[in-house]
Amino acid sequence: MRWMWIDRVLELVPRQKLVAIKHVSLAEEHLHDHFAATPGRDALPVMPASLIIEGCAQTAGILVGHAEDFREKVILAKVGKFEISRDAFPGQTLRYTATIQQMDKVGAATTTAIELMDHTAAGAPSIAAIGRIDLIFSHLDNNMSGEKFPEHNFVFGEGFKTLLRSSGVAGTW
Known about the structure:
six-stranded antiparallel beta sheet, 2 helices
């Protein structure tokens, strides 16, 4: 995975829950296009909902992959219900809490709660629930078509391993 849409893993309960955060920063180039200034309107940098979905998918995908010590190639198979009530702006942090609803040899169903942590107010950051998403993952090597894929795990590469190690998650991978 080339693009990382989570910055740190805060908590991991194997086969149950993973909590990750994403700091929204003006250093991210995509924010300058969402939405750029126009004549008569100031810039309004907003984290695109599609990238919030990707952050949720990476969080839940790591949880599902970790359950089998990353031996399976876990891919996103379906985006179910997605709800979001507020935008995320620079200086705020998104917190994703992914939980496994069901898992078997073919894949897993997950739900991820999305919270917004606002650091702009004085004192402790405010935290508000702003959405949720239901995702279904497939274990690619256990697909029903019998299709064969490369032996190396092209889904969970060095980027995710580095993220997990720097977050204090130990593993044999």
